[in-house]
Amino acid sequence: MTRLRPASELRSILHRIDGLGYKAYKEIEGRYELEGFVLSIDHVQGDPFAEPSRVRLFVPERTAQFPERLWANRSCRIGLADFLTRAVAETLRRAATRVRGSGTSGLILIDAPGQEVLERTSVIVHNGDLEVRLKVGLPAAGRTVLGKAAAEILLGQLPELIERALRYRAHAPSEVERHVAANEDQDFLREKLKELGLVAFVANGSLLPRRSGVDDRPMPRERAVLFQSPPSMEVEIELPHAGPVRGMGIPSGVTLIVGGGYHGKSTLLRAIERGVYNHIPGDGRELVVTDPTAVKIRAEDGRRIEKVNISPFIGRLPFGKDTRSFSTDDASGSTSQAANIIEALEVGARVLLMDEDTCATNFMIRDHRMQELVAKEKEPITPFLDKVRQLYGELGVSTILAIGGSGEYFDVADRVIMMDEYRPRDVTAQAKAIAAKYKAERKAEGGERFGEITPRRPLPESINPSKGKRDVKLKAADRDEILFGAEEIDLSAVEQIVSRSQTRAIGHALVALKTRYLNGRRTLLEALEALERDLDREGLDLLTPYPVGDLARPRRYEIAAAVNRLRTLEVLA
Predict the structure, then answer these.
(1) Of 29, 99, 186, 248, which is least packed with CB atoms within 10 Å of its CB?
(2) Residue 1's pLDDT is what?
(3) pLDDT tens digits for 245-266?
(4) How many Cβ atoms from other residues are within 10 Å of residue 327's Cβ?
(5) Where does residue 539 fall: left (phi above 0), alpha (psi -120 to 50 degrees), or beta otherwise?
(6) How many structural domains compose the chain?
(7) Is 70 exceeded by the pLDDT of residue 97?
(8) Among candidate residues 122, 141, 171, the one where a domain is terminated
(9) For residues 415 and 210, what is the distance between their CA atoms, to the nearest angstrom?
(10) What is the DSSP string of 412-469?
(11) What per-residue confidence (pLDDT) applies to 416?
C-alpha cells in the first residue's frame, strides 16, 4: 500500500511546479490524506490533450454516514452506488466550473448512467465505505502547468464535491431510500418470476413509451397511455418496499403481441426487452421485469458465423455444405437469425424476444402456396413457426413475438395479446377460434424433434487483442462497436447493450476470456460461467490491470455475442 502523504505536501508540489512543463505533474501521483477522505491520484495524463487523469476518492463510512440498511446486501449496494454516481454527475453539471486552459483543463468527469441501474465501477460501496472514481483534466496553458489552478481543483473542488454529493446529510433521506428500495424491489420481483411461472411482468401504471428513438427518457405523462393489464392476465405480487403490486404476468410458453401498426406492439416488446435490467424511479419501467436470460433475436445480414450448428433451422444446402458446423463470412438474413438463436441457446438463454419488423420473413413463415411451388426438398430453411413449440416443449425455452402479418402463429401460441391504441387485450380465445375456423393449409416442416445444440470450444489464440507493439489495443468506439486489436466488432444488432460502459467492459471481458478462461477444452458456456462467478466475487476490477471508473457490467449473452462476431474467431465443435 502506497504511504499516505499529507494534503500540505500536495499543495506544496503544485505550487512548486506551477509554470513548469506538463510532465512535472507526474510528481503528484500517489495517495493523500485530506480531511475526512483519501485522495488517490492514480495516473497523470501525458499532456493536456490526452485522456484526463485518473483519480479516486476514498470516503470512509464515518464520513459518508449512510445507514447500514442502504448497503445491507448486493442489491442495496448497487442501488446506492447508482444513486451516488448520479448525485456526483448532477453536482458536477450544476457547478459547471472549468479552468480556462488547454485541452481537458479543469474537467471533472464521472461515468454518468442512463435510465438503467447497472453494476458500475464509477462508485463502489463496501461496508459503508465509498470509493469514487473520476477523471480530472489537470490544467495547463499550452503545455505549461497551472499548478495553483490544479490545487484549487484537487484540494478545493473535490472536498466540496464530497460535501455536496457523497455525504448522507447532503440528500433528502426519502430520495436515497426510494432509489435503493426501487432497486431491491426490482431484483426481488425478477427472482419471483420463475416461481410464478412467468417470463415477464408489466405493472399497471407503467409508462412504456420513450421520448424518441434516440432519447430513452420517458415520454411526458400527459402524452402517454399508462399500461393497464387485461383482467385475465393480471397478477398481484407483494414487494418488500412497494407492497402489493398488480400488473400483467406473461406466462412461460409462446406469447404473441399482435395489433395494427402504431398501436404499441414494439413499444411493449421493447420494454420487456429492457426488463432484464433495473430502472431508476421515475423512468416509468421500474416495475417492468423480465427473465434475466431473455435475449432479443433479429436478422443480421452480413455477420460472420463460425461453426454453428444451425441444422435445426437450415439443412441440405446445395453442394453438400454441412449446416451442423456452419461457417460463413457474410450471412444472409435467415441464416444469421438462425445462428443468433442457436448461439443464444448455447449460452443458456431461456426466453427469446422477436419483433417481426427486424426478422427475416423467409425464416419466420412459409405459407402453403410457397410450399406448393417450392417443394420442401428444395427449401433448406425450416421456418421458426415449425420450431417454436418444440423449443418450449423440449428445451423449456419461451418466446415472445411481436407480429402483425401472419395469423399462422395463432396455431402455436399459448397466449395472444392485442395492443389496441396502446392498451393490451387478451385475445387468446378469439385467436384460437379463428385458427379453428380457418384451418391452416400449410404442412408442418419442423420434423419430430427440435435438433441438437452443439457446444463449441473457442480457441484462445483466435481472440487477439494485440496491434503493433501493444499487447492489448482496445476501445469502445461507441455503444455498438469495439475496436479490438486490428479488428472491429460490430454490435449494432445486439440490442440489449444499453451503455457504452457495458461495451467497454465486454471488450475487456474478451481479453479475460483469452488469458484466463479459454484453454481449447472449455466450452464457451463453461468459460462464461467461470467469468461470471469471478465477477460476482471480485467485481469488475477483475477485467482491468488497474482500477478504472468507466465500466458497467454486461450479461453473458452480450459477451458471447461479441465473441461470436469477432471475425478472427476459431472454434472446435
Answers:
(1) 29
(2) 58
(3) 999 999 999 999 999 999 999 9
(4) 17
(5) left
(6) 2
(7) no
(8) 171
(9) 26
(10) G-SEEEEEETTEEEE-HHHHHHHHHHS---SPP-S-SS-------EE-GGG----BTT
(11) 98
